[in-house]
């Protein structure tokens, strides 16, 4: 690889680290919420199964998607999925927040095995989110001389694999630090899902410029102009999420602090 290619791949990897970090922290908090009604020993086991499931489903998703990624229908479904989960998150956070909190208080906790099943289903959704976002970022990178794996160029596969591993490492060792960051800058969580939506748009453009569909020119879908537009908007979302985010008030931190404590007690995060 030449220097320009290494810099482009390195930049995408840096974006993936930030995105995976925020998503992994959000995923960890969701799982903490799902298991915190259990007794401490059962909670620890449920979180262990959840981490194991995250590992299996994330790498399973990677290998499945690597074989299907160049089918335009898969690209289109992936684009709609990424855009849909981002919209769902934003609606849940800003429109349904008070209703969902009331519903959560009234809901009785499930038994151990039902909780494990719910955690594993959440793992599947998280795995698909993370791998699809990584694939959408990777597939428009320049090709390399590395051997193809599935339908992916070896360099693209390496970037997606790195993103998957980074997400797992963060869930296991560094989620607590990202939770603290999200507590300080809550707008970063919203920015992360706006990035997911924008990555969905990128995958949609890639699908629409597929030779079998050709609604958009392939030259545009893979060209410099679209890359500049994409990275400029992505940078604006990230900078806006950081600088426009207001500090969270102490009362607003209570729920996330409780969830973080559940994770620490269960040894999912390092003490």
UniProtKB/TrEMBL annotation:
Cited InterPro entries: CHP03716_TM_YkoY (IPR022493), Integral_membrane_TerC (IPR005496), MFS_trans_sf (IPR036259)
Protein name: TerC family protein
Superkingdom of the source species: Bacteria
Organism: Domibacillus iocasae
Similarity remark: Belongs to the TerC family.
Subcellular localization: Membrane
One GO term describing the cellular component: membrane
Membrane topology note: Multi-pass membrane protein
Transmembrane segments: 12-35, 47-65, 71-91, 112-137, 157-179, 191-208, 228-245
Keywords noted in UniProt: Membrane, Transmembrane, Transmembrane helix
């Amino acid at each position: 690889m030449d220097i320009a290619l290494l810099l482009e791949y390195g930049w995408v990897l840096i974006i993936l680290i930030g995105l995976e970090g925020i998503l992994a922290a959000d995923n960890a908090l969701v799982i903490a919420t799902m298991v915190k009604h259990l007794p401490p020993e059962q909670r620890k086991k449920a979180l262990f199964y959840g981490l194991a499931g995250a590992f299996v489903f994330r790498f399973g998703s990677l290998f499945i998607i690597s074989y299907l990624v160049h089918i335009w229908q898969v690209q289109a479904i992936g684009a709609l999925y990424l855009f849909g989960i981002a919209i769902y998150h934003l609606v849940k956070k800003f429109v349904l927040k008070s209703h969902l909190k009331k519903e959560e208080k009234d809901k009785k906790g499930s038994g151990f095995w039902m909780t494990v099943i719910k955690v594993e289903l959440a793992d599947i959704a998280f795995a698909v989110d993370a791998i699809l976002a990584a694939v959408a970022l990777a597939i428009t990178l320049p090709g390399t001389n590395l051997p193809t794996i599935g339908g992916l160029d070896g360099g693209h596969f390496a970037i997606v694999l790195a993103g998957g591993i980074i997400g797992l490492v963060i869930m296991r060792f560094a989620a607590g630090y990202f939770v603290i960051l999200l507590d300080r800058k809550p707008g970063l969580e919203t920015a992360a899902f706006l990035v997911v939506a924008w990555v969905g748009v990128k995958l949609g453009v890639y699908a629409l410029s597929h030779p079998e569909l050709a609604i958009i020119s392939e030259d545009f879908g893979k060209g410099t102009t679209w890359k500049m537009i994409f990275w400029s908007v992505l940078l604006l979302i990230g900078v806006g999420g950081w600088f426009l985010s207001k500090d969270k008030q102490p009362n607003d931190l209570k729920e996330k602090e409780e969830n973080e404590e559940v994770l620490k007690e269960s040894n999912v995060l390092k003490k």
